[in-house]
User: What shape does this take?
Amino acid sequence: MIYEIEKWIKEKLFDCQSCGQCVLSHTAMVCPMNCPKGLRNGPCGGTLEGKCEVLPEKTCVWTEIDQRKKPSFETLHLSPQKELYNTASYVNLVNGKDRKTRLPQDVVDLGDIPASSSLSEKMYGEEFVVTLEIASPRTEDGLRRVERIMRRVADHVDAVNTTTNAGGVPSLHSTETAKVVRAHGVESVIQFCGRDHDEPDLLREIESALDMGYRNFLLLTGDWLPNVEPGVSQKTWFPMDSLQMIHAVNRRLRDYQQRLGVVPFIGCASNPFSTPIEVSLRRLHNKRHAGARFSQTQAVTNVDTFARWYEGLREGREAEARLTIPSIPLVGSQRMFEVLCRLPGVYVDPSLHAVMDNKDHQQNALEWAFGIAEGVTENGAAGVHVMNFGMPPELIDAFLVEIRERGRAARSRYEKASA
Assistant: This one.
């Protein structure tokens, strides 16, 4: 009876989704469970112009929340307990069943523990770093393609991101693709999505990857699954968001150090083009406070927008190491350009549209990418993360061969301008 009354009232007032562990008092009386992904700590990286990634006709609920109340960087909400769904939140409040997931939890500052990775050493040492993204193939036969790529690029990159189920499409696990990368003496960045893991499963996977010798991890909320109807439902809520993943791994760093003798280098995603920009910046600051040591951005297609975002990110942190790596898209075909344009949270600047309208778009797109890479570095970026969208191998190689020297020159110009 109590549940039915509460449900009727809160549905009318707040469009309540009956999670049973109500956080309305912490979210400016806006129910965060109206996010299709069920995110309880802020927007995902797919938010553009304040709109929802999954339901673009709707305003992102976290845009509404953050306009009313600024979040604390020192706390987060844990994933809701499924066993409390469709129960009376008021009863759970009284008996304390929802205490752990209703109340904000403190983040843990373990920044004094150095990570056990070469990529970490280079970034904290202020080296210009180059990383490359390779999508994990669907089958083991596809690893031959990864092998061919690594033969060409191994001498030109500091680390390689290997994806798992990118865009929700089933693939080999990130660690399987990473075996090919490691065979060429290059570190991998292993990716995990909160869409695919609850906390116990994530921690098992992290420890297994550490045992395999992997040290760099990118912890992402994840894209909406392509075969799932867009909408708001308890069935589609993600088990974890990126902030919860970062917190779960970070608070075990000392245990990993003492028990395994290694410390993971925790990374996250960020989006300079997610608006309002203040929400994007607060989201990344929240992840940093929770334990993320570095971030890789969504594809950057406009230097001025990145520069404004990065200036806001660095405000008050000028003396700290540069730990943000902007992603540079290498676009070599019209088909893959269309894929880029459809990616959640990606803003494609008119300048790239103009390049792709040219007959000789591949060479022009390569020069455009060099311009973006040098521009973001002149504004203080830690390096570049290369994402391929149909560029032929010889032009990818040309970019990787030249970008380190061009990047160092751009870094020098930045340092002179900042002196």
